[in-house]
Amino acid sequence: MLAPHLFAVWFMARALQPSTIVESGVWKGQGTWMLRQACPDVAMHCIEPCQSRIEFRDERATYHARDFAVGSWDHLDRERTLLVFDDHVNALDRVRQARELGFRHLILEDNYPVPRGDCYSLKKAFAGAGFSSPGDTGGGRYNALLSGKWMRRKQACSSVRPNPDDARYLNRHLEIYSEFPPLFRPSRTRWGDDWTDEHYPTPPALLQEADRDRFPVLWREALSYTWICYARLKC
Q: How many domains is the chain built from?
């Protein structure tokens, strides 16, 4: 995560004040560090299959190499646990898994719009657009580890046919779906085309281009935004 999503995660975690955070997709650990800044006293569970690449380790967190779907979470307070998914896995599957396990609060970082990105997102599901990735199947750092228990990641990144059923499922089971706004919204996207609401519906940016000199890092990393969202499941 870079600035737009780091700020979004910090803000959402501060607002929710969970007792526990489960972070799926640690990579080098910057997201873990930010979550600790947002919630200094929270209990943390950090999931990362390639743990040798972690550069920041939270001394009070518990680290796991097993996928979220096969983890043991019976001891967690479902109402006060926040799930943070930054793992390039099928987001609809993550919502279903969270619902089956009784969790309610989710942040989904890889919420790519149609037809972009390397995984099936809630934004694509709501649009009924499906997902097809002939090249990168998503979560490139996981691809070398796709054997045995990690095969579910390969399955999670497989193609999804366009359909209306996934949107119906989300509308039936989600109480809240909210995309966090970008910090800046340049005129063109990271893919080089026009950033318009016709092609990329987006909440209004928090800052205007006139503010770019005041916040050079935020402006420089503005195009790392991928419609990060918060979702709350119904009771």
A: 1
**Residues 135-194: pLDDT tens digits?**
433 333 333 333 333 334 444 467 899 999 999 999 999 999 999 999 999 999 999 999
Under DSSP, the state recorded for 7 is: H
Look up the domain containing 98 and give its range.
3-233
CA distances from 91 to 20, 111, 220, 228, 231 (A): 21, 8, 28, 12, 11
* 35 touches 14 (CB < 8 A): no
Q: Is the peptide bond before 115 cis (omega within 30 degrees of 0)?
A: yes
CA 32-38-47 angle, 5° bins: 25
Q: Which two tokens stand for residue 187?
A: 């005129």
pTM: 0.89
- Measured between alpha carbons, how far is 40 from 138 in angstroms, rounded to an integer? 32
CATH number at residue 217: 3.40.50.150
